[in-house]
Design brief:
By secondary structure, the chain is of the alpha/beta class. It has ten helices and nine strands. It has a six-stranded parallel β-sheet with strand order 1-4-3-2-5-6, sandwiched between helices. Strands 7-8-9 form a three-stranded antiparallel β-sheet. The longest helix is centred in the middle third of the chain and has 16 residues. The structure holds adenosine monophosphate (AMP).
Length: about 280
């Protein structure tokens, strides 16, 4: 496995693989890799001949008041995880290599303005831009995204359709800690008291899922129950709890099609997201 820093080196490697008739999978990440990322890489390794992992904390998806500077980074540990998962190449560029005075950005209406888009208005434009660039740099056959960031997965699927990228988008299930907390690079921000408090999110979503499985179809009833469960935790401050159509991200009154039940909660200063999808 190699680590490269330039677009030129990635393109050269991929061109050679394609000349040999090999298929290529891409796993876009911001690094500080954990078991969640590893599950994406392992799936990509199973389904493709070669796998590129991009490892880049993308500045354009962070607002000035967000955690770009403090976002955790550890390329040596990331390299070890990628190697053990069977990746072929890590693309670890710096911001100049990726943006070089760029004036062009990819934006999307509607589904980027709801859920996380309400509190993070520039976030998905940054995500669409960097993922488009990675798609053009790597030209993969398939790209792998986690359902942990369900809105992002929905946005990427829509972008691929709208802009005619010839790439298959593969969604992968959420990987959790033994106690239920969804794995996230941002979990490292939590002190021990906050780590305990953070469990309210998966606990409340589990409750919501049980209520739906038990036959409740009224989304307001389910959202209220989830909200009440989270509000039992004094350290938690809710950003949103919503049940939406998993394709359009429009709010639903009743659970009668594939739904995404998503929540974002601040635990102290750390903003955590989690969700469940019901087909
Ligand atoms: P990030 O490095 O946080 O930008 O995440 C890179 C990719 O890994 C995204 O597609 C995420 O959805 C995915 N991912 C992050 N955490 C998890 C998790 N706990 N389970 C599954 N996928 C995840």
């Amino acid at each position: 496995m190699r680590i490269v820093k330039t677009i030129y080196e990635v393109r050269k490697a991929v061109k050679e693989w394609k000349r040999e008739g090999l298929t290529v999978g891409l796993v876009p990440t911001m690094g500080y890799l954990h078991e969640g990322h590893k599950s994406l890489i392992e799936r990509a390794v199973r389904e493709n001949d070669r796998v590129v992992v991009s490892d880049f904390v993308n500045p354009t998806q962070f607002a000035p008041n967000e955690d770009f500077e403090s976002y955790p980074r550890d390329i040596d540990a990331d390299a070890a995880l990628c190697e053990s998962a069977g990746a072929s190449l890590i693309f670890n560029p710096n911001a100049e290599e990726m943006y070089d005075n760029a004036l062009t950005f990819v934006d999307m209406n509607k589904i980027t303005k709801v859920l996380c888009g309400k509190t993070r208005p520039i976030h998905f434009s940054g995500v669409c831009t960097v993922v488009s660039k990675l798609f053009n740099i790597v030209a993969p056959d398939r790209a792998y995204f986690g359902e942990k960031d369900a809105q992002q997965l929905c946005v990427i699927r829509k972008m691929v359709k709208d802009l005619n990228f010839d790439i298959e988008i593969v969604g992968c299930p959420i990987i959790r800690e033994a106690d239920g907390l969804a794995k996230s690079s941002r979990n490292t921000y939590l002190n021990s008291e906050e780590r305990e408090a953070a469990l309210c999110l998966s606990r409340a979503l589990n409750l919501g899922r049980k209520i739906i499985t038990g036959g409740e179809t009224n989304t307001e009833t389910v959202v209220k129950a989830i909200t009440a469960e989270i509000e039992k935790e004094p350290l938690a401050k809710i950003d949103y709890v919503e049940i939406v159509d998993f394709n359009t991200l429009e709010r639903l009154d009743s659970v009668n099609k594939p739904v995404l039940c998503a929540a974002a909660v601040y635990i102290g200063k750390t903003r955590l997201i989690d969700n469940f999808i019901m087909e």
